[in-house]
Design brief:
The chain is mostly helical. It has two helices and no strands.
Amino acid sequence: MFLLAFFFYIDGVYTIIDMATAYGQALGLDSTGLLMALLVTQIVARVLSYLAGCPGR
């Protein structure tokens, strides 16, 4: 059951990353801009997931 859930989870993550880079390329971002956008997205997601998981906030 875990492997099936992990498969769908990681497939969704890769789909989001793939679509985000395609969208960024359509906006005219270069490779550096795309990498910076993905890095900022990861940092923001980590901070917000920590804040969402903390009780009492």
